[in-house]
């Protein structure tokens, strides 16, 4: 007797059900598609084109009537013309600008113009933009006077979208033109999964389209078969089918004779057939029924296989989360049971090796920490030098001060440098785990100015001329002022040391905005620059371009770490012989809250 496995039975059962489903699907698809009528698609397209054209025509006629009334009822020299224009604009939110032309002795003269500056400003436009559009797309005044109404695409690349409506007042020999928001026509066009509706003018150029670039470029679509029919056909409406790049298309058009524009409605044939939708619905229901039967059968026959595998999977998830040594119960002696026993053996072995690795890793970490702390201690004098020099310098200045207010200012600066020196030592103690950063809202220029004051005496002794350019009106930043000052002082003192052998010793510190939500600090020197091989590794620990004995290479590494904690970036631009520029980029967005850490001292081992 031939015995088949459960897996084989499941494959055979699901295969038979899927073959049956495919056969039934093809049979239903053939019947439904063959029963569909192309005429229904034509009708829907034609009705949509007619409805859109009626809506566009009604809106344009209403506005044209307003413009004619405006041109007929007022005398061009009559006082109160601005008030009447304002009333016209208040009655129609889409109006942006207006002008009136009159034919006098065979020559057209512009007799009046009105622009709604507030509406233009809201669109980031100006009256100059309107005039530019008028010059680029002039109004054919004689044609408007003969035709009565004309709609034009007055858009200008790259981003000025405008619609122009011109209406004639033949009795007065006037033409009134108005620039409108593009939404006036865009509200009736668009693209969906089925239909694409757009407007073209009498030359076959796009007037309104769901894709803005086609409007801005005045794209010529006269080669489109349905557009060509709309321009050339003697009838006002029509429908046709043609083959485009994306496949067969069913299209309809409706022409607005008076306005000189046409509405075009296109739809992919495969998308609009009613039978396709019906087939999709029936197929979805049928597939759901087949899927339900398949799931019930699979659950019934696979439970014996899936249940122990799920238990094994859950245990493996625990191991992947670090719970080594856990074991899965072995309930059978088949292949699944063999896998469970192998997994248990692996889990016990992983636990044993993990324990060994923890011991060895602890020893390695202790060794590396001792080595790193030794290197940090060697460079501690360099790191603490800056604030200590400041303390000594301001102490001497304090002794020479002549007023209590001046002495208090020096005492405050001494206290600030002492706190910063204490912070540097604390960073050494917290080398393994830096403390939380206390943040506050800061003025970047004030932080820079305070840093310059702290190192002003040292710069004077080194013969360095300091030039500042602090941009006004910078947005505030969030951070720790002491740490940011530590970074700036490190960069400034490094610059002073780099210029010791330079003929010109000039330090430039600039602040500027970095749109959309950032600020930048530039620290430039006139030193010898940084060699490429050093520049690429400059921010790594213990890498320095200074002579031996003048630096440990930790200052820039610590500075970059501080800037990164502030969600910022520290970089350098330098070529040998052309000095160096250090760039600090900081965000003006609120910094994310850092997770709290356990309180208490951090041991150093």
Structural overview:
The structure is a single chain. It is built from 18 helices and 18 strands. The protein has 605 residues and is an alpha+beta fold. It folds into three domains: 38-274, 2-Layer Sandwich (Beta-Lactamase), CATH 3.30.450.20; 291-378; 434-587, Heat Shock Protein 90 (2-Layer Sandwich), CATH 3.30.565.10. The strands form four sheets. Strands 6, 7, 8, 9, 10 and 11 form a six-stranded antiparallel sheet that branches. Helix 11 (274-320) packs across helix 12 (335-378) and helix 13 (380-399) crosses helix 15 (444-461). The longest helix is centred in the middle third of the chain and has 47 residues, at 274-320. It is flat and about 95 Å long.
Which key features would you list for this structure?
605 residues, alpha+beta, Beta-Lactamase, Heat Shock Protein 90, 6-stranded antiparallel beta sheet, 5-stranded antiparallel beta sheet, 18 helices, 51% helix, 19% strand, flat, disordered C terminus
Count of individual helical segments: 18
Largest sheet geometry: 6 strands, antiparallel
CATH architecture verdict of the largest domain: 2-Layer Sandwich
- The CATH topology of the largest domain corresponds to Beta-Lactamase
Unreliable residue stretches = 364-373, 430-436, 595-605
Range of helix content: 40-55%
Rg value: 40 Å
The total tally of domains equals 3
How many angstroms separate the termini? 72 Å
Number of strands: 18
The CATH class designation of the largest domain is Alpha Beta
Let me know the average pLDDT.
78
Instruction: State the secondary-structure class.
Output: alpha+beta
Q: What is the strand content?
A: 15-25%
Write the CATH homologous superfamily of the largest domain: PAS domain
The general outline is flat
